[in-house]
Amino acid sequence: MELNARIPSGPLAEKWDRHRFEMKLVNPANKRKYSVIVVGTGLAGGSAAASLGELGYQVSCFCFQDSPRRAHSIAAQGGINAAKNYQNDGDSIWRLFYDTIKGGDFRAREANVYRLAQISVSIIDQCVAQGVPFAREYGGLLANRSFGGAQVSRTFYARGQTGQQLLLGCYQALERQVAAGTVRMYPRTEMLDLVLIDGAARGIVTRDLVTGKVESQVADAVILATGGYGNVFYLSTNARGSNVTATYRAYKRGAAFGNPCYTQIHPTCIPVSGDYQSKLTLMSESLRNDGRVWVPRAGGDGRPPQQIPEAERDYYLERKYPSFGNLCPRDIASRAAKEVCDEGRGVGPGGLGVYLDFGDAIGRIGEAKVAERYGNLFQMYQRITDENPYQTPMRIFPAVHYTMGGLWVDYNLMSTIPGLHVLGEANFSDHGANRLGASALMQGLADGYFIIPYTLGDYLATAKLPRVDATHPAFRAAEAEVGERARKLLGIRGQRTVDSFHRELGRLLWEHCGMARTAAGLKANLDRIPALRQEFWENVNVPGSGEELNQSLERAGRVADFLEFAELLCRDALHREESCGGHFRVEHQTPDGEALRDDQHFCYVAAWEYQGPDRVPALRREPLEFENVHLSTRSYK
Amino acid sequence: MNLTLYVWRQASAASAGRLSRYEAADLSPDMSFLELLDVVNERLTRQGEAPIAFDHDCREGICGSCGLMINGVAHGPLKATATCQLHLRSFRDGATIYIEPWRARAFPVLRDLVVDRTAFDRIIAAGGFVGVSTGSAPDANSLPVPKTDADLAMDAAQCIGCGACVAACPNASAMLFTAAKVGHLALLPQGQPERMRRALGMVQQMDAEGFGGCTWHGECMEACPKEISIDWIARLYRDYIRASATRPERVAVEVAL
Ligand SMILES: Cc1cc2nc3c(=O)[nH]c(=O)nc-3n(C[C@H](O)[C@H](O)[C@H](O)COP(=O)(O)OP(=O)(O)OC[C@H]3O[C@@H](n4cnc5c(N)ncnc54)[C@H](O)[C@@H]3O)c2cc1C
Ligand code: FES
User: Fold this and answer.
1) Which of B57, B68, B113, B158 most suits a substitution to test ligand 2, by most atoms within 8 Å of the C-beta?
2) CATH superfamily name and code, B3-111
3) Which of residues 437-456 of A touch B (CB under 8 A)?
């Protein structure tokens, strides 16, 4: 397999313009003759489906929730970045580009990231025009905040519900196209396989989650915008339904998987409270603007926080990173929390927590002001923990949050399978080894509103696509495989529930492939995961039948894929003998415990190619070339 | 803690349903309500029984997937709280809890606690948007919006589309849902050009879906996890009446198109 990133030539700032001119167009009258499948209705899929419908393509759009409005994007809290420089504080496209490249620890493609920064400004325009009620100043203009360690105020937000408002804008645009007849929406429908004909993506096989009907959907191109795979860890901040099935099925059909080991662990989440825990709740990063993170200086200090005098507290982020302090990037803050807990200085049940303290802020600006800034978050915290954060510091702990890895795509967002495009968190493209806050929403909408409408046209205008329909043997075969798999899962009737396998898999990954990874731990996982998978296929109990609404069957299919994908994740983590961004290999650190990159050997994208069941996947490398920025060591000291 | 549950079980849309009794033991008060159902389902699965089907996804009160009638109250006893954000500490040890799906003609039950809410999507498709295609937007700051309007619009825009308003209403009306969207867009300059046809189109669709009319009980507001006020319904009436009175033919034709 050849990895051709198809990066346009010319100076960085002119690449996208030039490319847009050079790409072929589909004649407006011909657009309605092309059909496109969009899987996913989050920011990436929803914006793509709406925009392609507006252009006149025949779009079929799928999601597993009961409505496109409920995609996981709805939960994003903090905000969306854009290089508008409305605050006159020194922001620019170049600065957003540079921050994103550096934040990603120099493991992303320059050309993609630059384009993202360029497009960011149009996204805000589009969303405001749709009626997204962003926060405003008294003068009526848009408000901004600084977020995720950025030193400029470039984040646009709608209270703590930015993802919700952006997604509703996008969902409304989508429903407008549904009414116009250009988009046909299939909610409660899950994609279970990808179908290739003559090497190109020509459709998918779906299961209707209410009736169980398995069907083929044929099109001229397929777009996956199916989100991230954070739930491979079982516990994460993702919605419960988020899964890897669509992208993993595409991988098994030949799409290379890029950098699966790049996972992001968010430092400020509410700690686990018991075995029944089903998900972890994120506390917005914005809390670190005013909250101070600390643990007791001495291990095993069981005193309530109020009784620990100032001198016996360790504000370890401020101590270790004096210039960024509590605002240092996510990967760094998470690892630092793990370190202090490993030293036995963690707080709360099991010692798995650190304090996020607003005492100083309340003293400085008053409780009312703190409530105005964070009231809804404090309320959410209190609702979950039954503790009052105005009186006692919050307890927080890192949790799996986002996955930078995803299907490999070229500059046109096309995977290694012609006609299969991948958008949003599902692709690997823009965040390198670590994503900065407020940039996933930006990327999802950039991909869907402003990139795919152009690049898909170029593909359709140039591809030679024979006419096919669902009677084609490739569709028939894929349908049969999907049906057979369901029958197999339903026929086992073993002793263990689907969730019990998922939890066990999650523990293995969290322990050995989480915030700190070692060769020994990863190798142990590469032994244990296949064994767990085998047990799953012999001993799982999936009740009910395939011809009905059966949530156990849905979960079983997803967990079966996680059980395979987890191995790929560990394999990638084992091969990358360096530390970068969210990937921290204990063997590769500086004397003071910081990540140690190895640019000489690992300045590339690792794209894994499936080789068949029980065979080691092949590693392809896309070298990363930096012509415009200098590879430096990330320092937030 | 221990709880006795009576849960609505219904195999499919076509079959009859009934309440089944389950004893749930050794629970933690820190468990969420949906985690309670998870625990019951794990046990049912191990016993070879069909687990209870229910909708959920984000489990943090924002996606609007979850929604249960808990002891006859939409989303249960806590105000401004979606089912997924409710914890067992809100219940007495030893309590008996009745768990049922949303009940409304326009929300048919699909299985157990899962209902079909696609009627809401069709109401939005009937006008709940601003008709701007991608690429044609002016600079975001070219049109100032008074902060008070933007904040008020956000109050309405917060609706999570869960359907609790319908489930709580004695008439199963979708007025609060519809009014929240009409009100959000009517407050913003971007929403003005389509304001009248939006109000008419969405209300017509709401009626066509079989939702009841509003007789001002206010139960919707009580049940709403986002505390959306019935004042929005008053605003909707104003727009609707104005739209019907001033441009009935033109608007009707446009809606039909
Ligand atoms: C709690 C939280 C807060 C966050 N806050 C921020 C923030 O403030 N700023 C920021 O920039 N980012 C934030 N993020 C990250 C950001 O929200 C996500 O990365 C982004 O929304 C992903 O969007 P997406 O469109 O790629 O995928 P998603 O929104 O995950 O959508 C996936 C879609 O694919 C569908 N789907 C998946 N698999 C299948 C299948 N097999 N068949 C059919 N349909 C399928 C789903 O139904 C869904 O519609 C946050 C994330 C979390 C978890
Ligand atoms: S599960 Fe999302 S609102 Fe309850």
Assistant:
1) B57
2) Beta-grasp domain (3.10.20.30)
3) 449-450, 453
Query: Which contiguous run of DSSP H or E holds residue A95?
Result: helix A93-103
Phi-psi region of A544 (alpha: psi -120 to 50; beta: other; left: phi over 0): left
Fold annotation for A474-613: Methane Monooxygenase Hydroxylase; Chain G, domain 1 (1.20.58)
Instruction: Give the Å distances, CA to CA, from A52 to A28, A167, A222, A456, B121.
Output: 12, 17, 12, 9, 19
CB-closest option in B45, B64, B117 to A541? B45
Q: Do B130 and A131 touch (CB under 8 A)?
A: yes
- pLDDT score of A358 more than 60: yes
Q: Which segments of A343-402 does DSSP mark as H helices, in order?
A: 359-365, 367-385
DSSP string, A1-30: ---------S-GGGHHHHHHHHS----GGG
Fold of the domain built from segment(s) B117-256: Fumarate Reductase Iron-sulfur Protein; Chain B, domain 2 (1.10.1060)
How far apart (Å, rounded) are the C-alpha atoms in residues A237 and A270? 10
Grouping H, G, I as helix, E, B as strand and the rest as coil, residue B245 is helix
Domain ranges of chain A: 266-399, 474-613
Flag whether residue A154 sits within 8 Å of chain B, measured between CB atoms: no
Residue B63 touches partner A, C-beta closer than 8 Å: yes
pLDDT value at A1 more than 80: no
Q: State both tokens at B246.
A: 């001033």
Between the CA of residue B235 and those of A126, B156, B199, what are the distances in Å?
A: 27, 11, 10
How far is ligand 2, taken at its centre, from the CA of residue A384, in Å? 14
Terminal CA-CA length for chain B = 58
Number of the ligand 1 atom closest to the C-alpha atom of A401: 53
Does A531 contact chain B (CB < 8 Å)? no
User: Residue B113: closest CA among chain A residues belongs to which residue?
Assistant: A549
pLDDT digits (tens, 9 = 90+) for A190-248: 999 999 999 999 999 999 999 999 999 999 999 999 999 999 999 999 999 999 999 99
Q: Does A384 touch chain B (CB under 8 A)?
A: yes
| pLDDT, position A572 | 98
The structure's pTM equals 0.97
Q: What are the pLDDT digits (tens) for A305-349?
A: 999 999 999 999 999 999 889 988 888 899 999 999 999 999 998
Residue B52 token pair: 């209870």
For residue A193, what is the DSSP state? E
- In this structure, which CATH number among 3.40.50.620, 3.90.700.10, 3.90.79.10, 1.10.357.20 belongs to the domain A266-399? 3.90.700.10
* Positions of CATH 3.10.20.30 in chain B: 3-111
Size of the A and B interface in Cβ pairs below 8 Å = 217
Q: CA of B246: how far to CAs of A189, A471, B236, in Å?
A: 43, 54, 15
Nearest CA to ligand 2 atom 3: B61
Q: How far apart are CA A17 and CA A140, in angstroms?
A: 33
Q: Name the residue among A69, A158, A385 with its Cβ closest to that of B161.
A: A69
